[in-house]
Model the fold of this input.
Amino acid sequence: MAGNSPLVGVLALQGDVREHERVLDELGIEHSPVRTVDQLGEVNALIIPGGESGVIDKLTRIFDVRDALIDRIQGGLPVLGTCAGLIMLADRLTGGLVGQQTLGGLDVTVERNAFGSQVDSFETTIDMPPIGGAPIRSSFIRAPIVRDAGSAEIIATLPSGEIVGVRQGNIVGISFHPEVSNEVRVHEWWVRTVVTPALQ
Ligand code: GLN
Done:
C-alpha cells in the first residue's frame, strides 16, 4: 500500500492480464502481478482476469497458490473477476472441464461458455445500476452466464434478462470484459466502493 492507496494485484497465470494493467494505469492505481503466495501477500485487492478458467485452475495448483487464494478470498480480500475470473469465483460451476475446480467465494451457479458456439463473442452496452451514468461498454468472449445468483446481489443483466454481474461483499464477478473495450468505469467503481473502504 502506498499511503492510503491500494496496491491491486492482477493474477498473472494466464489471460488478459495486460488489459487490466492498462486500465489500472489509466486510473493511476498501483498494481503488481501475482503468481506466488508471497506476491499475493503483498496486495490489498486482486483482479482475476479473463482467459481460460480450466487453465487458470490448473496453474493455481502448479504455482502452488490455490490454497492461499482461497484463504485470502474467504478472509475478505476485495476481488474483481472478469469472465474466466467470474468462473473462478463461483461456488458452483456447470459446463466445466472434467475435474475443473473453482476457488469459490460467490454463492452463485455459473454456466461456462453459456452463449454457445453460435454466439461466440459480441460487444454490447449494458446498464450497471450501482455505477450509473452512460451504459457500460463491454465485450463478451465465450462468456459465462450466472444461472442462479444465490445470495449475491445482481449488478448487471443483459436486456434479454441474463445475469452477467454479481457482487457479494467484497467480491465482484462479471461475465464480460470492460478492460477489452477501453472502459475504465467498472474498475474505478470497484476500487472506490469495494477496495478503498476495505482498507480503512
Ligand atoms: N470460456 C472461458 C472459460 O471457460 C472464459 C472466456 C473469457 O474469459 N473470455 O474460462
The helical segments are 17-27, 37-42, 53-62, 66-74, 84-89, 185-199. The longest strand covers residues 106-111.
